[in-house]
Design a protein that fits this description.
Elements: E1 3-5, E2 11-17, E3 22-27, E4 32-35, H1 40-48, H2 52-60, E5 66-68
Antiparallel strand pairs: 1-2, 2-3, 3-4, 4-5
């Protein structure tokens, strides 16, 4: 999955596959997580958010199934 680099104190890059509704987050520590069944609108809001990490913590973690890659 292609990811876009972002400016964040915790996140290195963010990717999204619209066919599977999978959000992929690469953290600065090198770990990669995939979140499943994430609507495209949520991905778009994440990318526009002033703080990607805060948006992730508030709107994605705990709300979507995930797996460490």
């Amino acid at each position: 999955m292609d990811r876009t680099s972002v400016t964040s104190s915790n996140i290195a890059s963010i990717g999204y596959d619209e066919n599977s509704s999978t959000l992929e987050i690469e953290f600065l520590n090198g770990s990669i997580y995939q979140y499943f069944d994430v609507p495209q609108a949520v991905y778009e809001e994440l990318m526009r958010a002033p703080s990607h990490g805060s948006y992730l913590a508030t709107n994605i973690k705990g709300n979507y199934r995930f797996s460490r890659v």
